């Protein structure tokens, strides 16, 4: 009998990957190991993956560029959770004979977190929780959502899912994206506006935009500078969409009321990153898709992808091929 195929699951921060999927189906065929700690150094990563024909990547936590892929001669199947991963060079993978496959996921879990962040920010829930545990009592005044304006940067699947909740809070909803048509915005329950108007008028700006070379920095110093001093910025999409330096200056200067972030330019966020000590912020460690229900879908499909590859096929293939 052939030796089991070595499978390495990366960035299993909570050490839950093996409990979230039907890995028992690979018993006898695969030797599955998980790595809880993020590996940033390329040499260390290459050493950790030596001899592993199958690697499982959790979203974009670990990049696989052309250099890294070229230094992994044993790698034949790279499975990413989700059906898109900007941190994997698909052309380089194909050139190195590596099949990349994806998984399905659940729909709007990130929207739930976005609203959690908005409420935590406007009602000062984290600092009030900390103060009451320290023996204190009321220290802040909250801000209501009723009558406020939600500005959505991006009105795709996730941005559109923000609208019904905003309406339940009796908010006005305006939206902008590069090619947003008025009719499509109206169908989603929002009103299309220009970019300048969105940042000038919105009381809460929530970002739901796909990161690309063109969209990096789409919320820059100009946009943040146009926001009201009473307005809040929320980003649950990707860190590089926002000019972090401009955001930090606005927070320290009191130019905006606050910011809630789930995503960062560099992840995990370094211990000495200035965002960790920025005033009027709520920070979470990229939790948008991190739910039991979503992980169950992710890892069920990961196992199915590996089974298909072992049997000579490919499920949900992202690299070119049959």
Could you provide a short overview of the structure?
The protein has 322 residues and is of the alpha/beta class.
Q: What gap, in angstroms, lies between the N and C termini? A: 29 Å
CATH class of the largest domain: Alpha Beta
Tell me roughly what share of residues is in helical segments: 25-40%
Q: What would the principal axes of the Cα set say about the shape?
A: globular
What number is the mean pLDDT?
97
CATH topology of the largest domain: Rossmann fold
Q: Segments where pLDDT lies below 50 for 5+ residues?
A: none
| Domain module tally | 2
- How are strands sequenced across the largest beta sheet? 8-7-6-9-10-11-12
Major β-sheet annotation: 7 strands, parallel
Radius of gyration: 22 Å
* Element-level helix/strand string: EEHEHEHEHHEHEHEHEHEHEEH
List how many beta strands DSSP finds.
Answer: 12
């Amino acid at each position: 009998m052939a030796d089991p195929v070595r499978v390495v699951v990366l960035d299993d921060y909570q050490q839950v990957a093996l409990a979230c999927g039907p890995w028992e189906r690979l018993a006898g065929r695969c030797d599955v190991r998980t790595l809880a700690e993020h590996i940033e150094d390329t040499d260390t990563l290459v050493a950790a993956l030596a001899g592993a024909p199958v690697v499982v990547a959790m979203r974009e936590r670990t990049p696989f560029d052309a250099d890294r892929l070229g230094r992994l001669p044993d790698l034949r199947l790279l499975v990413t959770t989700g059906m898109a991963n900007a941190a994997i060079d698909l052309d380089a993978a194909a050139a190195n004979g590596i099949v990349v496959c994806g998984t399905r996921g659940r729909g709007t879990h990130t929207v739930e977190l976005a609203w959690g962040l908005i409420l935590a920010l406007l009602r000062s829930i984290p600092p009030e929780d900390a103060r009451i545990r320290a023996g204190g009592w009321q220290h802040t005044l909250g801000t209501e959502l009723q009558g406020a304006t939600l500005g959505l940067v991006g009105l795709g699947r996730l941005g559109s899912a923000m609208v019904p909740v905003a309406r339940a809070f009796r908010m006005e909803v305006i939206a902008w994206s590069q090619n947003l048509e008025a009719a499509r915005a109206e169908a989603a329950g929002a009103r299309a506006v220009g970019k300048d108007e969105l940042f000038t008028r919105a009381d809460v700006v929530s970002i739901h935009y796909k990161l690309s070379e063109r969209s990096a920095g789409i919320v820059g110093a100009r946009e943040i500078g146009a926001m009201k001093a009473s307005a809040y910025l929320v980003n649950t999409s990707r860190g590089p969409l926002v000019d972090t330096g401009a955001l930090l200056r606005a927070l320290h200067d009191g130019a905006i009321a606050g910011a809630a972030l789930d995503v960062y330019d560099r992840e995990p966020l370094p211990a000495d990153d200035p965002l960790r000590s920025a005033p009027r912020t709520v920070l979470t460690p990229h939790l948008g898709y991190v739910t039991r229900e979503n992980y169950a879908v992710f890892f069920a499909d990961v196992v199915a992808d590996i089974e298909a590859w072992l049997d000579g096929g490919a499920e949900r293939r992202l690299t070119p091929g049959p």
